[in-house]
Amino acid sequence: MMKKLVSIILICVLLGVTLQGSSLPVIQKKDTPQQPAPVPVRSDFFLHMYVSFLLRLAHKPSLAAGIIRGDELVWSQAYGYYDIENQKVATTQTLYLQASVSKTVTATALMQLYEQGLFRLDDDVNMYLPFSLRNPNHPDVPITIEMILSHRSSLADDNLYWIALSYIPGDPDVEGFPYPWLMEYLTPGGSAYSSSIWSQDEPGEKYYYANIGFSLVAYLVEILSHQDFNEYCKEHIFQPLQMNSTGFRLRDVNIENVAVPYEYKNNGYFRHPQYGIHVLYPAITLRTSIEDYSHFIIAHMNDGVWNGVRILNESTVQLMHTAHFSPTDTYNYGYGWQVTNKPLKKTYGHSGGYVGALDLVTIVPADSTAVLLFSNALDSELHSTRMEWNAFNAINKALFQKAKRLP
User: Fold this and answer.
1) pLDDT tens, 289-331?
2) What is the pLDDT of residue 35?
3) pLDDT tens sequence across 188-199
4) Contact indicator for 329, 345 with CB cutoff of 8 Å
5) In which residue ranges of the chain is pLDDT below 70?
6) How far apart are the C-alpha atoms of 285 and 179, rounded to whole Å?
7) Do the beta carbons of residue 122 and residue 331 sit within 8 Å?
8) Together in a domain, 209 and 256
9) What CATH code is carried by the domain that includes residue 149?
């Protein structure tokens, strides 16, 4: 596969075909002159061609990428247009919807409160909630906070009907969230309840990925800190780390700099409105840039410290990046972080995919290296074939190879 891709790229070069701007838009304004995408430095020429080819293959209108070594963002580049219709060129300051990568920040917020001794990880969550949270199939088994953080609470699925109702252009608030909405959603007899959200397995036994669990994490942050979750993150994470453009809500960011969420279907890009999913916003709707988010990743890579600012203790960071179920499984989960137990090299990070977003963050602690990839489209035709993730993984590998050649 790699030889075939390289051959195609070399043919393009020989024929004088330029792939600058990566996924050139299907829709173009005839009365708007096309602006050239940033030209990479000479040493990045073949990498740029390779990445641009993969983006075309996966139908991505834009991509922002970065490489972190140690405590520094040592390389970054953007490709394509984050707003096709208005020919806006992507940069490393462009804000991208993070989808499930958002969970890394939400978990960090709660673990800051853990460090203050406000709870124990093995505490029954009912010690803090104003309602009783139990799997109705196992009503006598406590659900602990660490189970929720590591997707082992036995919450099994999102009720798509209610989630779809909260998919709202413009990101207005949903009345009653987080409480009593979470009670109505999670407890039998509630107005938003469905038995499908709970698995048949006992809490703590198996891994089930559940976005709503991180809405609970954010609610615990509010209960324990006596502060709105969104405001808490601004004060204790974004401001200390100088993530000045970052936010969970559209009202907190410069919407003109947010990548448009696209869906590729019927051989073209369908433009979605900028939106909120308020009942899941702590799990999905973080919007940040390569420049901003690199500060957060550097802190996690360097025992909780970025630029002399500590947001977590070293022991807490290690706890979050530790696999919290079978250590023999290749894929695992820590507290808000995906962990891969590869035979020769451990990695941690997070992936994310949602309407108009596909993102991948990979950290290799043994090499003190990380690669960040943010994009602004999902392909409704290719997603089921894994083409998008295959392309992303190929770009990921190429950037890790580049990292080895950096001084």
Assistant:
1) 999 999 999 999 999 999 999 999 999 999 999 988 765 566 7
2) 38
3) 999 999 999 999
4) no
5) 1-43, 326-330, 343, 381-385
6) 19
7) no
8) no
9) 3.40.710.10
Domain identity same for 61 and 82: yes
Distance CA 353, CA 376 (A): 10
> For residue 14, is it within any domain?
no
| Domain carrying residue 207 | 106-225
CB 217 within 8 A of CB 110: yes
Q: What are the structure tokens assigned to 176, written together?
A: 């009653």
Tell me the C-alpha to C-alpha distance, in Å, between residue 122 and each of 90, 99, 114, 145, 146.
Answer: 44, 28, 11, 6, 6
Question: How is residue 258 written in tokens?
Answer: 């947010």
Q: Are residues 307 and 271 in the same domain?
A: yes
- Both 159 and 307 in one domain: the answer is no
Calpha distance 272→274 (Å, rounded):
7
Q: How many helices (H) and strands (E) does the chain have?
A: 12, 17
Question: Between β-strands 262-265 and 377-379, what pairing exists: parallel, antiparallel or unpaired?
Answer: parallel
On the CB side of 62, CA atoms within 13 Å amount to 31
Cα separation, 192 vs 317, in Å, equals: 36
DSSP letter for each residue of 39-102: PPPGGGHHHHHHHHHHHHHTT-SEEEEEEEETTEEEEEEEEEEEETTTTEEP-TT-BEE-GGGG
Record the tokens describing residue 348, joined without a space. Answer: 């941690």
Q: State whether 284 and 335 are in the same domain.
A: yes
Instruction: Report whether 103 contacts 281 (CB < 8 A).
Output: no
Residues 310 and 191 in one domain: no
